[in-house]
Design brief:
The chain is an all-alpha fold and about 250 residues long. The protein contains eleven helices and no strands. The protein is elongated and about 70 Å long. The two termini are about 35 Å apart.
Length: about 250
């Protein structure tokens, strides 16, 4: 009975939410849980909160936050129209941008920036399974530390747990996306214009790595925003377990 009660509590903690382009819940259905790891007594998290409540609440918060962040980032213009995460012209190729604009190629510069952001939007869709692994492996101690940590404690947990795997997963996707949205086509004339200037040092940035790093940075910025909403705004606590766990911090 004790194990059954634990399992029922865990299932209730993972209420389904669906998003058209970034369906983290679909990935969750295939993920496995170690119910025995959620055994424990009461915690100092708040009145009536058990360690299981805290663990479930933090997993739910990360699931909801990851869903929202991924949905936002992976939609068309998710990066491009968000000033916080929009990927700009590569800073180490700023001379190329200036030379192109001076040569009357403003449209080409703009088209190139659009293509960079399109590549990031395509890559963001693939973050779901990686987030799932990090969320389901969270321990009770992780949950307690995150609950009482900084406003971005859950985001930092995800960043520490997933950054390398996300990079390794994103890189080939970004590379393929760069090809599919013709980033190179937009970059080549700009670089050619710059490199034709006498005596300049030729510029050839690693666009694959640049977009990969920028996409990851943007995804975690969005996740931090979602975490802050759940911590500070009761309206963002869209399930009973979120209201119970994060509501305890309001008292």
């Amino acid at each position: 009975m004790k194990k059954l009660a634990c399992l029922l509590l865990l299932i209730l903690g993972f209420t389904a939410y669906s998003y058209s382009q970034f369906n983290l819940n679909k990935a969750f259905k295939s993920a496995t849980h170690d119910v025995d790891s959620l055994k424990g007594g009461k915690s100092g998290g708040g009145a009536g909160l058990s360690k299981e409540d805290i663990a479930n609440g933090l997993k739910e918060a990360l699931k909801v936050g990851s869903n929202n962040a991924g949905s936002s980032a992976s939609k068309v213009d998710g990066f491009l129209k968000d000033s916080l995460i929009k990927i700009p012209f590569p800073p180490d190729a700023e001379k190329v941008r200036k030379a192109a604009i001076d040569a009357g190629q403003q449209k080409q510069v703009d088209d190139f920036v659009v293509s960079l952001n399109r590549a990031a939007e395509q890559a963001a869709v693939k973050a779901a399974p990686i987030f799932v692994d990090a969320i389901t492996s969270m321990t009770i101690d992780d949950g307690i530390n995150i609950l009482h940590g900084a406003n971005d404690a859950a985001t930092q947990y995800m960043k520490n747990k997933t950054s390398q795997q996300l990079h390794d997963t994103f890189f080939p996707i970004v590379k393929a996306a760069i090809e599919s949205v013709n980033v190179t086509k937009y970059w080549t004339p700009l670089a050619t214009t710059y490199n034709s200037i006498p005596f300049v040092k030729k510029v050839n940035p690693d666009l694959n790595e640049y977009v990969t790093q920028a996409a990851l940075k943007g995804l975690f910025i969005l996740l931090a925003q979602e975490e802050l909403k759940i911590r500070q705004n009761p309206v963002a606590r869209v399930s009973d377990i979120l209201k119970k766990v994060f509501g305890s911090l309001d008292k």
